[in-house]
Amino acid sequence: MRYLPLIYLLCIMLAGCATEPRVITRTVTVEIPVYQPRTPPAWLMAPVLDADAIGDVFVSPDDPGIVLGVTREGLKNFWQLIDRPVGRIEAWQAWAVAPAEGLEIERP
After folding, report:
1. Which residues on adjacent β-strands are paired with residue 58?
2. Is the CB of residue 69 less than 8 Å from the CB of residue 58?
3. Could you tell me the maximum CA-CA distance found in the chain, to the nearest angstrom?
4. Cα–Cα 20 to 30 A to 10, which of 3, 23, 84, 103?
5. CA distance 76 to 71
6. In sequence order, what DSSP letters do the residues of 42-55 get, joined into one string?
7. Rounded Cα–Cα distance for residues 94 and 103 (Å)
């Protein structure tokens, strides 16, 4: 028991003389997946209808070649005004559910 304070003193002195712990600094690159948005085809991004290409749909009631205020050409243009946007919506839906690679959708 007589040497107990001396042993404590030696332990404290040895602890005070201990070296600093080594600090190792490393740069580590961690790969994480990042969302990459898909780019739609150019034809999906193009305007659905060109106003100049459609032409006139409705005509004057005095026109001799009309049926219900629409000529046959105007009726064809009218159906294009309805069908093209519907076809474009279906194309967008097909593109949205298609895998990112490998499956090409058909242009309507």
Report:
1. 70
2. yes
3. 130
4. 23
5. 9
6. HHHHS-S--HHHH-
7. 10
